[in-house]
Amino acid sequence: MKPRSIDRGAPIEVALVIHPVRTRGAASREPAARLEEAVGLAGALDLQVREALLAPLRAAAPATLFGAGKVDEIHALCEARGVNVVVVDDALSPIQQRNLERAWQVKVIDRTGLILEIFARRARTSEGRLQVELARLDYERSRLVRTWTHLERQRGGFGFLGGPGETQIEADRRLLVDRIVKLKAELADVRRTRGLQRRARKRVPYPTIALVGYTNAGKSTLFNRLTHADVLAKSMLFATLDTTLRQLHLPGGRPAIISDTVGFISDLPHELVEAFRATLDEVREADVILHVRDVAGPDSQAQRADVDKVLAEIGIDAASGRRIVEVWNKIDLLQGEARDDVAERAVRTGALAVSAESGEGMEALLQRLGDLVDEGPELVFELAAEDGEALAWLYRHGRVTAREEASGAVVVSARLDSQALGRFEQMRPLAQIRAAAE
Question: Does a cis peptide bond (omega within 30 degrees of 0) precede residue 205?
Fold first, then answer.
């Protein structure tokens, strides 16, 4: 008799996705779009979504979020469809989550828990794992359940008056808090290290550019297109989690550092924003921020508001005049009048319409970046013809706009920021430098 092979694969989890539609107050996004996004999040966690539905919610019930009738209806649906995981696309309190699990007899996960689980799976670097673990522990601190009650120390003190000793749930909570304190200390070291790295980069000095945007807007595809890198770029929510930095060559040969960061999403858990603050500091300290938008998506405007909200949480005000450039990606998916309308609006608003997939608009984007990182007036440098070192330095640290050779000298027109200009003057104190003629 041939022995049966053992299936070592993870069991398939059958999921029901519910998006509560609050009837009071204006929703910032279309309920159908939110439901589709929640289904995408569940798919990113390898859940087999068997049913997805919108659930009107006039008033949230403190105990179960939904009313008694809707709770019974969903319970019957879970049994009929063989569901063992219910995803509620909303924030659930620990009491609501526990009561719904008891009523439906299935595992219940809310939007915050779902996003945290995806992040936990996608984290690759040690820094990313630290950040995700801290966020998960922060989230789970109020969701501890009494599982190992037989391990409790039931009585303390002496005689009949001794009260109950430390329960297992109290011990778990204490261990969890201790772990959180340790993780915060380790992440403080990470932030300190990143700060040192940023200061070292500023001494070079290379301008820094950060890509931000809603998840699945095409940031990683744009990053690969600009830098010729091979960062994972998939049509998947949160395909990229860990920050990646590469060198980018701007027009005129000047190098810059560009970073691809984690994508944002509506109702991004506060725990994640706090835990990923070390990573998001790369955005806050950048010279230029590229806000990549999926302009072909139906929810582009609402996604923009969600990204602006997260930027505000880390101290970046989109309306403050900071050098934030909107990059309207995926124009290759638009046709006819829709494409013409986007191109017209981009010109009117100062945005750049591009396709990271086909490469359309990349030249204009690089030109805009070159203009933004060039600070100070255009200067003219007169160099000796044999001074190739100084000429190469100008190409490396500035933006050369013109070059002429005459009578044993090289006349170079270039833009340098104040720090680079100071370094050049120290290196070549006798060089002739003047402002370019208007």
Answer: yes
